[in-house]
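Example 3.2
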Amino acid sequence: MAVRTIAAGGGNWNATATWMEGIVPVLGDTVFAAVTSGQLTVNVASACTSIDFTNYTNTLTMNATLSVGGSVTLVTAMTIAGASGLTLTAAGTLTSNGKTWPNGITAQSSVLVIHTLADNWTISGSLTLIGSGAAGVKHTFNGNTLNIAGGIVVYLAGNIGVNGTTTFVLNGTGTWSAGTNSFITNNLTINTAGTITIGTVYKRGGTLIYTAGTMNVSGQLALLVATNTLDTSGMTWNQVLFDGAGITHNLTSDLNVNILALGNSTNQTTINGSTINITNGITMQGTAGGVTTGTTKIKITGGTITSSGMTLRSPLEIAGDVTVVSGNTLTYNTGTLTYTSGKVTTTGSTLALTGPATLINMDKMTWNTVTVTAGTTLTMNKFFSGSPTKKPTIQSSTSGTAYTITFQDNFEKIAKFVKVSDCSLTSKGQLLMLTPNSDKGGNSGIRYINQSPNGIAKNAPSIVDTMTSPSFGLVTDPCFY
């Protein structure tokens, strides 16, 4: 590897007189700027292995792209003019010495390349990451912080991406865009007075933070494969997908999103912390066997709930006008399902409760069909209810095998316009059915009001189990002895 030194008279890159050695640099050479070196103009697309401007006090004019297959060293005293950028094609150490690179930087490789930042960098243009070949990471950026004013373009086809310990900061006006499955693992912060435009992008691990800036978000943020941590409460995403077999995603602040997408796999994904606020629907993309769980509350205030068969175990709150898509089954267990407000349309859909769960205010929304896994115990504050024109069917997953309802307090509960079978009460007699023909068989401990004879449903001549009087609360009804 030869050293090519910029001559005192300087000149164009492709002129032999520009170089003290009288030879134009090529890939394999190091370009060196001495204290006495003159101005250098990259006038044609050029290449070298490294550039060292440590002692440079003159002007580098970038009128064409310079490809560097190694290290880059800038210095504060130098001047950089022109609009063309650097292309990094191989591993190297990047040292800014506090100098802002006024243009873009492209990293391009078909194999893994490690770029080490010796100090913080600021670039006025975009960071463009290009890769090809077999799937996997093609660029690793390690160390310090890379401040990017022009945005990030990740165009690494075929599950190819960038990782490392360097934090990327979007601090200007630009875009974050990506090719299909072209992902970023590095920590990424959005902190700008400008506007960031985001299409469909992929984050596979690391932290994503929003601090400030105008956000123009049209695509989907896909969180895949590795643990992601989000702190973006000050902005609204268009659509966020949580996925990853056996992966835990963490929210350190509320996540605001138009559409929440859950799961592409048949394995468990966990979301912990804070609340996801949804304005336009939930799409449960995972197939049967897929599970989304965790401590994060999922709160939906509008749109549709679509399910392909996956199970939701996270706390779910319905607080707006929501439609459960006809023909779909919302499969739920373990967590707390709460109705707060709004009109909920469930025509043609099913609520499948496949394990223990807590259900709050189910009397305020009318389900089409509710199927409870046999042997399951549900905790409720009130029972399901319906209307004269829509009577929900509450049934066991196995006809003739009971499920159990436990109410949260000792007060009597009234239900009407429902059809119930195989329901067993923990507190016998606590649930009062107000509508004739609500008993569809196998029920235990339900009282039937305004029915004959003596408050016992037709075809149910006696209560299977008598009520046990607690030490406080309910008073024993003699008809149960």
